[in-house]
Each structure stands twice: as structure tokens, then as C-alpha cells.
Write a structure and sequence with these properties.
about 220 residues, alpha/beta, 7-stranded mixed β-sheet, 8 helices, 7 strands, binds S-adenosylmethionine
Length: about 220
């Protein structure tokens, strides 16, 4: 069995490794955070007063969440204490908590999870899904982004990235089943990240390609049934 990656060891060079793996697509790794939050802003159930980023790492998405949902309280959690320390430094005023059993951070109108499930041991994924269910408000929405296991380029990036050494990719149907297994109802499943930013004039195509299992990633959204 592969040992779980300790993200505390990648706090200093996380962005660098991400940039290295994805530079063929975008020269600026911040693009991926902006792109995902823009999708979430478009599809989230409103109003959004409280936001959780579960598995926020070094906090790359936090400022984009704050900008997309002005006035909302944003909280980030992760199991990596070093990651959270950097996230807190970069995002003054935002609350960060170490993710642990029994952590009580209340409930949320929006929960955002990006690139976390493939690092969670298969046997622990149902438990993580249950936590997300329990923290979601009755009218809230959950968005989970994951690497697309059908895309050979994505698989190659994962295979060569040091902090993906423990990655076990999951298919959209598996992720949906995990979320629905908690009683959540899935809203959408969509492949994304087809068009690199340098071809921005082709971006409208992304809406038409959501069904095509060739995007770099995919996302699933859900709400309480
Ligand atoms: C690839 S990083 C993604 C970080 C962030 N979501 C982003 O988009 O930049 C995966 C993160 O998931 C965290 N993680 C892994 N297992 C977790 C768990 N069971 N609960 C919470 N976070 C976890 C890791 O510590 C790491 O920070």
C-alpha cells in the first residue's frame, strides 16, 4: 500500500510543482483557482453566507472565493498544519482549522473541495463524504473537483508529480456514488478544463463539452435531498 503523502513537506514548493506539471496548459497556476471558483459562482445556490473550503492546502483558492462571494465568511480546513500556517499568512482574517474527527465548524451554504478525494484512502472516502454532508446547510451546495482519470495527459501529470505519489483517481460515477451514499442529491456532473487560457476565444466551447470525458478535470455538485 502506498504511504499517504504528507503535504507539510510540500508547503514551500507546492505552487512550483503545480506550475511545472501544468505549464503546457497555463503558464500561471493561479488560473486553475480562478477557473474553478468562477464555475462555482455560476452554479452555487444563493444566498451564500458561509463557505467552507475542505482540504484548502496552502489556501490557493481562498482569495478567489472571497472575491466571488463578497461578504461571505470563508473557512478553510486541512490535515496539513504547515499548509494552513501558510494559508493563514496569505489570507489574514480568514479562519483556518486543522481537519480532525469531531471538528465543529458549523454548517455552510457552500462547500468547495478541490483535488482532495484522490488523496483520501479509498476506505476513508465515505467518511469524508459524510462530513461534507453533515456540514452542508439544507439549501446549500457542495462542489467537488477531481482529476479526470480518463484523460491520459492528466494521468501522466499525476504519475510524475511527487505530491501525487498516494493518488488514487476516482471516476465521476464513483464520486457521485460516494456523495449520494450520504443522502446528498447530485445536481451536475461535468468535465472541465478543455481550453487553455491562451485560446480564450474558444472558451464558450467548454459549456458544450461538459459531457466529453477528455477535460483535464471534472466536477460534481450536490445538495441535500
Ligand atoms: C492537491 S492538494 C489541494 C489543495 C487545495 N484544495 C488546492 O486546490 O490547492 C490536496 C490537499 O488535501 C489535503 N487532504 C488530504 N487528505 C485530507 C483529508 N482527509 N481531509 C482534509 N484534507 C485532506 C492535503 O493535506 C492537501 O492539502
Amino acid at each position: 500500500m502506498t504511504e499517504k503523502v504528507d503535504f507539510d513537506q510540500y508547503t514551500d514548493n507546492y505552487n512550483e510543482l503545480l506550475r511545472e506539471g501544468t505549464k503546457f496548459f497555463s503558464s500561471n497556476e493561479e488560473y486553475f483557482a480562478r477557473y474553478k471558483i468562477e464555475l462555482v459562482r455560476k452554479y452555487a445556490h444563493q444566498p451564500v453566507g458561509r463557505i467552507l473550503e475542505y482540504g484548502c492546502g496552502i489556501g490557493r483558492n481562498i482569495s478567489y472565493l472571497k472575491t466571488a462571494f463578497p461578504g461571505a465568511e470563508v473557512i478553510g480546513t486541512d490535515i496539513s498544519e504547515a499548509g494552513l500556517a501558510l494559508a493563514a499568512k496569505e489570507n489574514p482574517g480568514v479562519r483556518f482549522e486543522v481537519e480532525r474527527a469531531g471538528l465543529d465548524v458549523g454548517t455552510f451554504d457552500l462547500i468547495f473541495v478541490a483535488g482532495v478525494f484522490h488523496h483520501v484512502a479509498v476506505a476513508e472516502r465515505a467518511g469524508v463524504s459524510q462530513v461534507l454532508h453533515d456540514r452542508l446547510n439544507p439549501k446549500g451546495s457542495l462542489f467537488v473537483f477531481e482529476h479526470n482519470p480518463y484523460n491520459p495527459v492528466t494521468r501522466r501529470i499525476v504519475d510524475t508529480c511527487p505530491y501525487d505519489a498516494d493518488a488514487v483517481l476516482l471516476r465521476p460515477s464513483e464520486l457521485k456514488a460516494l456523495l449520494c451514499g450520504t443522502g446528498l442529491k447530485s445536481d451536475r456532473r461535468a468535465y472541465c478544463l478543455f481550453v487553455p487560457p491562451k485560446l480564450s476565444w474558444l472558451m464558450p466551447l467548454e459549456n458544450w463539452l461538459q459531457w466529453l470525458p477528455m477535460g483535464g478535470q471534472y466536477w460534481v455538485s450536490a445538495h441535500k435531498a
